[in-house]
Amino acid sequence: MKDSELRTRAKTLALHIIAVCDEVDTRKSRGVLVNQIVRSATSIGANIHEANYAASKADFINKFHLALKECGETEYWIEMLVGSNAISEQISKDLLQECDSIRRMLVKSITTAKENA
Fold it and tell me: What is this structure's pTM?
């Protein structure tokens, strides 16, 4: 089932980001970046999970839209971590590729849900 794969990938991404952030030197403003990316990355999966308990089709779609927005925000924070030399280009490439895959899955799920509404 697509949602199961999506939930698993979102969870894996969040855990990967947490592991990466555990290695970041959080002196000065990098701590703010780490806090922000951990929040947005974990929120992707949380919203997907919450969608399973949606009160209506519209609520389900809304939760997936929130997950999509958090995915975009996570990409921004990845770019900020790279720009501040907190993580390597290779780590960022891997994380951005996974964000892109999750984003495409979310868009497809939202489109399908809207068509079936």
Answer: 0.92
